[in-house]
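Posting here for the record, re: 9MR.
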Amino acid sequence: MVAAPAIARETVTLKHGSVPVGTCVQALHLDDPELVRLLLRQVGQLTAEWQMNMEYIIRPDGGFQFEAPDRIAAFAQANGLKLFGHTLVWYDQVHPAFRALDESRISFGDAYRNYILAVTGRYHGRMSGWNVVNEPVAEDGNGLRSSLWSQRLGETEHMALAFRTAREGDPDARLFINDYNLEYLPAKRATFLRLAERLLASGAPVTGLGAQMHLAADIPPARIFEMMSDLAGLGLPIHVSELDVSLVRAEDKRLGPDELRRRQAQVYAAVAEAFARLPARQQFAFTFWGLRDKDSWLVAENSADTPAPFDNLGRAKPGTVRLDQILSA
Ligand code: 9MR
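Prediction output follows.
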């Protein structure tokens, strides 16, 4: 008989190190007492998984709704957790109300500013930070994405406007650009960093860099270290903003399940190590995109995946135990 991989149950308390550890949640997760218990034990910060996005906040009739994000915010406050905002401007989220704007009544730019002010203003003083612009760089890393926002307000101008407006709405929150594949694609990373520099040069208050870090278990750890040190070069705080390590997305299909799990543990440990090497003032937070496998978007996409730091029973995986030791050393 093959022994199950060693899993530690109660040995891990991620939030007791000096680095803020977080996870994303949906309002619905707060009805799951086991998850709530795990959250309160493990993390000090919550990110709204999608309910602070336009897709939730703007209703079909163009009005705003805040029930779910209010619930997440109230839960965070009641339990002494920080709250991170995700996300204000995303190419992927263009509400039809913006396409349908009748310019004689309100200009596109005014509606855009109004949205950002409404959302940041509602939670102002309660947020550790906001992803102001999510995923601005083109998929292959060559240039920036085109979106309704860039077409109407300018390629980088719409981002600068979003940052200035978010600062107006919440003077205290740290303001991020956030993107993915920055470790896999050096060209995408270079474009991302040039964008941050251009925004800063234009006076936009970009005060943090987010690396989502949706990784596969066979990523060479060197890529993680390279990315972290490149991003650190700008001097801004860094947020590992959506970490998970997929087994089924591994490119090397020869790797068996045991080897994939071993690599997953290595990858989790490498991300923690790379983050821990940053100067303390550049360690914004270390956020998982779901604590248990069954809460992960990747498992919704492929039920065979086990990408999260905890299994479905809330038990820490070996990589999580190592990660904990590294972050709290
Ligand atoms: O995990 C999120 C899923 O529940 C949402 O339906 C989806 C669309 O809002 O977004 C997922 O999270 C994404 C994040 O917002 C941005 N980076 C990629 C994440 C996974 O798709």
